[in-house]
Amino acid sequence: MAKTLPKTDVVVVGVGWGGGIIGAELGKQGLKVVGLERGKERGVKDYYVVHDELRYAIRYELMQDLSKETLTFRNVAKERALPMRQLGSFLLGEGLGGSGVHWNGHTFRFLPYDFEIKTETEKKYGKNKIRDLGLDIQDWGITYDELEPYYDTFEKVAGIGGEDNHFQGKRSNPYPNKPMKETPITGKFKKAAKDMGLHPFSMPSANMTEAYENPYGAKMAACQYCGYCERFGCEYGAKADPTVAVIPYARSTGNFELRTHSNVTEILHDGKKATGVRYVDVQTKEEFIQPAEIVVVTSYVMNNNRLLLQSKLGKPYDPKTGSGIIGKNYCYQILPGVTGFFDEQFNTFMGAGSLGMTVDDYNGDNFDHSDLNFIHGGSISLNQTGKRPIQTNYVPDGTPSWGKEFKEKSTHYFTRTLDLATEGASMPTRNNYMDLDPTYKDAFGNPLLRMTYDFTAQDRNLYSYTQKMMGNIMKEMGAKEVYARGVSEHYDIVPYQSTHNTGGVIMGAEPGTSAVNNYSQMWDAENVFVIGASSFPHNSGYNPTGTVGALAYRAAEGIIKYSKNGGMLA
Predict the structure, then answer these.
(1) Is 51 a known active-site residue?
(2) Is 445 exposed, middle or buried (0-12, 13-18, 19+ CB in 10 A)?
(3) What is the pLDDT of residues 150-161, one digit of tens each?
(4) All domains in the chain, ordered by first residue
(5) Which position among 102, 106, 369, 500 bears the catalytic label?
(6) Of 78, 126, 184, 228, which is most buried, counting CB atoms within 10 Å of its CB?
């Protein structure tokens, strides 16, 4: 039988970027907050001597244990969904800080076009453009200008370094940190792009370009360019992550209580408002009920959706009728890429997660789509993350996959290849969604989340277009051979592509087309706030973290208002 604990003002489900921000901001205002994290506690001290590619990058030390909880996957509804047994297409973080610990640190703002995508697309190209492509796009119920102050706050907290982008929305302040170093590699991309009439800029980075102290008093060291960012925690404390940038401050308020190894299985509610949550201590298997005035769900996209569906909170999406919301508009990203082989050598083994140059000339609606059979686009980047020997093994086409020639060419080209990649936008369609699996269950007997997703004609057309643009840039850079990454006929759960999953608890201006308002407050339960990329109605041509952070700060403001006055926020 579950033990009922004393009531708190706010309970937070998942303590990563979203949960850390909520804990810090609400704790500062005197609200009592309990943060429930199903993984273990961790921080910089746990990442000393972390340069172990096999342990962290290959065997996924920081990721979710799929033997205890996973999801099922299928391309279309007529197929039987099967469990994902190994991490592949995306890497779900587990433990304090969540995926914010093992990220690269790219911190873009979405384009103004993104937030009003339906209105702007219809205005420029007509309603038939959207209909003919079979897309379910919608405006977000908030504009870039309204969200800009919250972007600014998050960038100051995360110490983002960067420079102006020709296509960006207006900024109220410069970046709080300098851009990362320009290297011979990024400089080669920059020159080629400029020579082609494009507009390159230094990638916005959460890898500190110099020692930085954020508004919470968190001190972060300068990046060492060691090449161990993605899939690793930063042993130098030089990458903004929630365990460094926000959670220590939340705890210092005296109003934030962290409980690790606490897996929330249900949001308790009376049909109108939430009353608290039920959770299991994963070490002792004890079950608890934590009553609360306000419930804030800040876990990863998949878990946000699963928890709401499991709790029967909000109406599940039905692709047959198009009714319901929870699980709707699941989006991912497409990742076109090209590899260039050069005669000259580069120090490709050095780098940082966000050391790179980007062009936005083919992103959003920054180019004319009148005669194109897709909308949106993607950011094209050369990202010098630091190539590691196990996962980096490029050889020209036609090279044997083993033996003497393979070894010779692997060694030769290790420092003679460069990559370009596009983070391609993903548009929602009626048949890409999430629901609960009727067959498979987790270690606690609860149904797994089921993902139904496949590439669309929109995806393939966008992929082909940006692939061609990257090939042109790589040739301008002087590559003697250029190989393009092809798009598969169907999406598969492996290999790795990105961890940029979005949607399912989407944001909008009215309850008929969205699950939450622009304060991340649920229409169906006014004291429940759902924060994260799950609220994105579509996915843009960037990493989602900057927008997640901005929305978290707006939600914190809304929760504080709600705690005083109640009711739906305007």
Answers:
(1) no
(2) exposed
(3) 999 999 999 999
(4) 3-127+134-181+204-331+439-464+489-565 (3.50.50.60)
(5) 500
(6) 228
